[in-house]
């Protein structure tokens, strides 16, 4: 039972951390509860479908279907996170100002919410499909199934509790700083996802250049340990990154920074429309 | 923005460089949540393809942080795992859904 609990917890933890950060990042944006719910519900539904077709996905593209699927899911999430950060760079200040005045709703549109609902949905889908497959395996085995299943359910509950912990932990950050903190968290999250995505492309046999390992810090911090896992999700910690992973990681961080600089409104009000 | 585009372009160009790589084939079989063979030898510094055959009815996740691989192999099916180039050494792998029994080591030499 403990084994099942741990396996399910590990998977839920990954999606949960992302959900927690996204929830903190959208604090004060009206209608976010609905979008987050849609994201999670869509992800759970998608997880079931992906698990059902695991065999088909796996066999597609000469046996590289699963890797390409994961790489694609991660890549979409990266794009959505970049879009969100650009949007927040432009409108975050207004929302923070609105939040200071009690009771005023922010009238800005729901654009970043759709992007983040997609991010949540994809995270739940990716990790959730493994949980579904694992739990299905337990049920298929019969005999000691019920105890293991109880472990699995407890694992989901523990993962959900961790999500809440992440969220309320981030809420402790004062209003003034919350958007810059969550923007950086999201930038690191996106860079880590991109590095993971390119490794899936490598496993698929598509991106095989620059595949030498740059360093090995498994002796210092194993990616299998709890701290290693947390850092893997949060900042993309990899114990043996390849040159390509490192390149992509840095490239995404730079791209994110440039994008946020461009999107940021000039301090003296709206930019002149005509070129000078 | 331009800098970002150039970087992305660079990455894409590098990616296309060596799209087609030939890989040797090795086979690992999962039965009763155990791997056979439990030890598999491959040449170091070379890209290698391992076919993981899952003879169990239940799904398994072939995983190795050391080899940078994680792949779900549905029950009664098989999957291809590509690893390397690896420096000489021992690389443990395991089945994440049955970690207690499904364990093995890959030796690159």
Q: Mind explaining what this structure looks like?
A:
The complex is a heterodimer of chains A (276) and B (109). Helix content of chain A is 76%, strand content 0%. By secondary structure, chain A is mainly α. Chain A has one domain (2-263). In chain A, helix 3 crosses helix 4, helix 4 packs parallel to helix 9 (243-263) and helix 7 packs across helix 8. Chain A starts with a helix and ends in a 13-residue tail after the last helix. In chain A, 46% of the residues are buried. Mean pLDDT of chain A is 86; it is low at 102-107 and 270-276. Chain B has a five-stranded mixed beta sheet, with no helix packed on it. In chain B, strands 2-1-4-7 form a four-stranded mixed beta sheet, with no helix packed on it. Chain B is globular. The N and C termini of chain B lie far apart (45 Å). Chain B has a single domain, classed as Cupredoxins -  blue copper proteins (Immunoglobulin-like). In chain B, strand 5 (60-64) and strand 6 form a beta hairpin. Chain B is mostly beta strands. Helix content of chain B is 15%, strand content 48%. Chain B has one helix at 2-17; strands spanning 24-31, 34-36, 39-42, 48-54, 60-64, 69-73, 77-83, 89-95, 103-108. Classes of the chains: A mainly alpha (276), B mainly beta (109). At the A-B interface, helix 3, helix 5, helix 7 and helix 9 of A face helix 1, strand 6 and strand 7 of B.
| Beta-strand content bin of chain B | over 45%
Under CATH, the topology of chain B can be stated as: Immunoglobulin-like
- Taking strands numbered 1, 2, ... along the chain, how are they ordered across the largest sheet of chain B? 3-9-8-5-6
Q: List how many beta strands of chain A DSSP finds.
A: 0
Structural class of chain A, by secondary structure, is: mainly alpha
Can you write the helix and strand succession of chain B as a string?
HEEEEEEEEE
Radius of gyration of chain A: 20 Å
């Amino acid at each position: 039972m403990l084994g099942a609990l741990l396996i399910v917890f590990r998977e839920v933890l990954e999606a949960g951390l992302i959900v927690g950060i996204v929830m903190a990042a959208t604090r004060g944006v009206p209608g976010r509860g609905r979008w987050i719910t849609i994201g999670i519900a869509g992800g759970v539904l998608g997880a079931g479908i992906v698990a059902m077709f695991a065999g088909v996905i796996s066999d597609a593209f000469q046996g590289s279907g699963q890797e390409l699927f994961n790489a694609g899911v991660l890549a979409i999430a990266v794009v959505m996170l970049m879009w969100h950060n650009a949007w927040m760079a432009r409108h975050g200040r207004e929302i923070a100002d609105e939040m200071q005045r009690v009771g005023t709703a922010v009238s800005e549109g729901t654009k970043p919410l759709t992007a983040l609902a997609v991010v949540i949905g994809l995270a739940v889908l990716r990790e959730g499909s493994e949980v579904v497959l694992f739990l299905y395996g337990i049920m298929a085995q019969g005999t000691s199934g019920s105890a293991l299943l109880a472990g699995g359910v407890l694992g989901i509950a523990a993962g959900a509790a961790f999500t809440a912990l992440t969220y309320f932990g981030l809420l402790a950050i004062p209003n003034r700083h919350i958007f810059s903190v969550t923007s950086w968290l999201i930038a690191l999250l996106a860079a880590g996802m991109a590095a993971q995505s390119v490794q899936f492309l490598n496993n698929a046999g598509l991106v095989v250049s620059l595949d030498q390992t740059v360093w090995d810090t498994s002796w210092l911090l194993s990616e299998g340990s709890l701290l290693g896992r947390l850092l893997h999700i949060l900042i993309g910690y990899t114990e043996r990154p390849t040159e390509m992973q490192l390149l992509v990681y840095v490239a995404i961080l730079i791209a994110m920074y440039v994008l946020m600089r461009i999107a940021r409104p000039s301090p003296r009000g709206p930019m002149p429309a005509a070129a000078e | 923005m331009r800098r970002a585009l150039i970087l992305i372009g660079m990455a894409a160009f590098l990616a296309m460089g060596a799209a087609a790589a030939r890989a040797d084939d090795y086979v690992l079989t999962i039965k009763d949540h155990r791997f056979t063979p439990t030890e598999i030898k491959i040449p170091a510094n070379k890209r290698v393809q391992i076919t993981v055959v899952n003879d169990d009815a239940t799904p398994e996740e072939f995983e190795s942080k050391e080899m940078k691989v994680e792949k779900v192999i549905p029950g009664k099916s098989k999957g291809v795992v590509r690893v390397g180039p690896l420096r000489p050494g021992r690389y443990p792998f395991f089945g994440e859904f049955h970690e207690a029994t499904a364990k093995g080591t890959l030796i690159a030499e």
